[in-house]
Amino acid sequence: AQEGILRRQSLRESAARTYARALPIVPVRARGLTIEGADGRRYLDCLSGAGTLALGHNHPVILEAIKKVLDSGAPLHVLDLATPVKDAFTTELFATLPRRLADDARIQFCGPAGTDAVEAALKLVRKATGREGLLAFTGAYHGMTAGALAASGGATDVRVTRLPYPQDYRCPFGIGGERGAEIGARWTETLLDDPKSGVPAPAGMILEPVQGEGGVIPAPDAWLRRMRGITADRSVPLIADEVQTGVGRTGAFWAVDHSGVVPDVMVMSKAIGGSLPLAVIVYRSGLDVWQPGAHAGTFRGNQLAMAAGAATLAFVRENRLAERAATLGARMLGQLQGLAAAHPCVGDVRGRGLMIGVELVAPDATADVPPPAPDLAAAVQRECLRRGLIVELGGRHNAVVRLLPPLTLTDEQAVAVLDRFADALAAAER
Ligand code: PMP
């Protein structure tokens, strides 16, 4: 059955299909960290729906919440009408927000995908400021619809001014760390303040507190506070894209919580829907300039996603899974750094919480920073799969192996994941 399904899909699906190419498996059952293929093989899933499954696959509290809605006879589709399910989700979500935002926040249900919420955020700040231009960052990923795409790294759009995202490894200024980040911040100030720079007053700045698809690059907290200061001083709304970093993933409920930065707009999706599609923006009420009907969409009221999402948010909060992600993530990062010391093909290991990246390089004794090795990264991914471990690739050169395990990962599972990864690395290197 598995071979037939894979063959038919590869013939019928668009050439754009992505994950399916690198992961030729046919999942038929899943629970927690584990996926079972149609051929009976089991895999440890450290892709987690690209960071969506905070509680892993089919967590009992999520299944229970979904069944409860189904059994209650509640309508599954009511556009954006108020329902008890929506009320419960909103209450739960607001309880997780930074205090200063929660006290004065509005929520707009977008959806169904992260990219839809990004579009809504860009549209909102443009309307609120009456300005067009956006500030976005190198290596950013915000989605695949026109506005989100334009704000993503590599895209060119006259309305988007690209600023350097701070990075230690391959720092564009060659100095790395907080000093490199500070230079980037000053560069941003100069661009905004010098009339000769040609950068018009922007409608907003959009950033990821940790770049995910860009290769797991955590921004220093000090830099985030600098960006908050720079934007606040110039009345430029700051949009934090927490689509991937949210709901405990980085070791805080929201990644901005690490720095204490309170953005004007937060973009949320992935984990907030507890495996089902859901996307919202939350913003300070002062930005709520929209006329009734100014933003719409048929699928903004997914009741099952809201119920699954509320259960997820409550479970993460009650079980302190953000703290768990911080401690377990730090331990795994340390172990991977140990592995890197023994493998010259590992150029860098970085991350925050359970958002971890391992950058593979072609060892080159003459280079300060060796060139990225996308082919080796693909080989590591293949060797991982052969050993029953699912990982994702990312980064600007596609040379970063990404680990995004569920926050429910146990100590024993973490050991199994790292053992398989170490074996795969050794095999790919040969
Ligand atoms: N923003 C970020 C930071 C993301 O990581 C993603 C998805 N990887 C998106 C936006 C887009 O979300 P979606 O794929 O659901 O449209």
From TrEMBL:
<protein>
    <recommendedName>
        <fullName>Diaminobutyrate--2-oxoglutarate transaminase</fullName>
        <ecNumber>2.6.1.76</ecNumber>
    </recommendedName>
</protein>
<dbReference type="InterPro" id="IPR049704">
    <property type="entry name" value="Aminotrans_3_PPA_site"/>
</dbReference>
<comment type="pathway">
    <text>Amine and polyamine biosynthesis; ectoine biosynthesis; L-ectoine from L-aspartate 4-semialdehyde: step 1/3.</text>
</comment>
<comment type="similarity">
    <text>Belongs to the class-III pyridoxal-phosphate-dependent aminotransferase family.</text>
</comment>
<keyword id="KW-0032">Aminotransferase</keyword>
<dbReference type="InterPro" id="IPR004637">
    <property type="entry name" value="Dat"/>
</dbReference>
<dbReference type="GO" id="GO:0030170">
    <property type="term" value="F:pyridoxal phosphate binding"/>
</dbReference>
<dbReference type="InterPro" id="IPR005814">
    <property type="entry name" value="Aminotrans_3"/>
</dbReference>
<dbReference type="Pfam" id="PF00202">
    <property type="entry name" value="Aminotran_3"/>
</dbReference>
<dbReference type="GO" id="GO:0045303">
    <property type="term" value="F:diaminobutyrate-2-oxoglutarate transaminase activity"/>
</dbReference>
<dbReference type="InterPro" id="IPR015421">
    <property type="entry name" value="PyrdxlP-dep_Trfase_major"/>
</dbReference>
<keyword id="KW-0663">Pyridoxal phosphate</keyword>
<dbReference type="InterPro" id="IPR015424">
    <property type="entry name" value="PyrdxlP-dep_Trfase"/>
</dbReference>
<keyword id="KW-0808">Transferase</keyword>
<dbReference type="InterPro" id="IPR015422">
    <property type="entry name" value="PyrdxlP-dep_Trfase_small"/>
</dbReference>
